[in-house]
């Protein structure tokens, strides 16, 4: 059967933290969970836009400042959430940047790798002890079909200091999201309460594409009716990963259409290299060193 937003179980009493929730997929994810009764935190870089988004959602919604490109901001946000919430049921690592010109984060990391992977790695590690005691809690990390495109973990040049390609750097960050999820699930398995799950939205018409080359954006605009889906549909894989009781740790959800670019959310597989355990563990160790964050698992 096709899984839709109507299949989200009652979320009353649950706390969900959604990064990048002021617009696009994150907003739709937060809205759907709040409408099912969850207390939702919009963890966003621009709190003014976050407040505007919260005002449009019916339910218990608050806003937390979070700039994933700054480890200082990540730590401050995590401290604030730890003080406010003794338990967290859902952490949805949704925020991201795509195809940006060569830039670095405040800590000197390449922007896409630093934001999409390292920021979420640190944020998860700092909040995980709020999820571990909660039965049925989940960490959902949003990857992309881009994890297959020119993607590898360039351990010899993680920050792209010697050369830079927008698509390859994005692919590395999205591949890292998956490797993080699979290694996190391996570590969580002995605890038996929290699960790590991944999802991807296919091709969704969101602000994430604003840094794409003009020719690509123009082509996508022309083909949008057949190759993209609107944010409410694109958010469904994340929502299923977060809320479907049948989901298992270590699974990956995406659209069921041709090429996984659109369609109903269902179980998918990622690239062969994403399942390489040695690479996952090496990336984990490097990520701990770069962020200074260690996990309680």
TrEMBL record:
Database matches in Gene3D superfamilies: NAD(P)-binding Rossmann-like Domain
Domain of life: Bacteria
UniProt keyword annotations, A-Z: Oxidoreductase
Annotated InterPro entries: NAD(P)-bd_dom_sf, SDR_fam
CDD domains membership: retinol-DH_like_SDR_c_like (cd05327)
Native organism: Cryptosporangium arvum DSM 44712
GO molecular function, one term: oxidoreductase activity
UniProt record similarity statement: Belongs to the short-chain dehydrogenases/reductases (SDR) family.
Protein name as it appears in the record: Short-chain alcohol dehydrogenase
PANTHER family: PHOSPHATIDYLINOSITOL-GLYCAN BIOSYNTHESIS CLASS F PROTEIN (PTHR43157:SF31), PHOSPHATIDYLINOSITOL-GLYCAN BIOSYNTHESIS CLASS F PROTEIN-RELATED (PTHR43157)
